[in-house]
């Protein structure tokens, strides 16, 4: 007589929680990969750097649900940066920006580190820009420098 297989015990609550957490991790990774694939498809259509940086700004702004996302290019020690792409203004061509007017940009470029200002109203380095920030309803600022060959670009 053949023996009947014993049913597996029900997974414990801890096992179900671990499984649920792992599924959430995999879903998040899937979304990141799909965003990357969409960005690569968009970038493959052009060799013009302006189209590429606009696509990057647009994709970052959309993915992270930002009000604003800009891409700046700089030359070391120049005292200025070039605003070359903006999520909120796709028609933007290029503007020269003085780093003296944007201490958060200057700090990120000098340190090559992320600068995060969660509350611009209480940030002493932005005191002179409070009216402009308030009129644009800016609440927080994050600057993420991009490094290429260990140099901030």
Topology of this structure?
Elements: H1 13-44, H2 49-63, E1 70-74, E2 80-86, E3 95-98, H3 103-111, E4 115-117, H4 130-135, E5 141-143, E6 147-148, E7 151-152
Antiparallel strand pairs: 1-2, 2-3, 4-5, 6-7
Helix pairs in contact: 1-2
Q: How would you sum up this structure, described in words?
A:
This protein has about 150 residues and is α+β, with helices and mostly antiparallel strands. About 40% of the residues lie in helices and about 15% in strands. The protein has four helices and seven strands; from the N terminus they run H-H-E-E-E-H-E-H-E-E-E. The chain has helices spanning about 15-45, 50-65, 105-110, 130-135; strands spanning about 70-75, 80-85, 95-100, 115, 140-145, 145-150, 150. It has a three-stranded antiparallel β-sheet with strand order 1-2-3. Strands 4-5 form a two-stranded antiparallel ribbon. Strands 6-7 form a two-stranded antiparallel sheet. Helix 1 (about 15-45) packs antiparallel against helix 2 (about 50-65). The chain is elongated, with a radius of gyration of 23 Å. The relative contact order is 0.09.
């Amino acid at each position: 007589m053949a023996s009947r297989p014993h049913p597996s015990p029900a997974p414990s609550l801890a096992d179900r929680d671990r499984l649920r957490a792992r599924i959430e991790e995999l879903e998040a990774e899937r979304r990141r990969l799909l965003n990357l694939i969409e960005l690569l498809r968009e970038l493959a259509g052009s060799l013009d750097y302006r189209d590429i940086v606009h696509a990057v700004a647009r994709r970052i702004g959309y993915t992270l649900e930002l009000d604003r996302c800009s891409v700046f290019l700089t030359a070391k020690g120049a005292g200025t940066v070039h605003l070359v792409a903006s999520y909120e203004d796709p028609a933007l061509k290029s503007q020269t920006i003085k780093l003296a007017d944007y201490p958060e940009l200057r700090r990120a470029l000098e340190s090559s580190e992320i600068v995060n200002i969660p509350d611009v109203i209480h940030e002493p380095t932005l005191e002179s820009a409070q009216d402009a920030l308030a009129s644009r309803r800016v609440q927080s600022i994050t600057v993420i420098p991009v490094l290429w060959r260990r140099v901030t670009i």
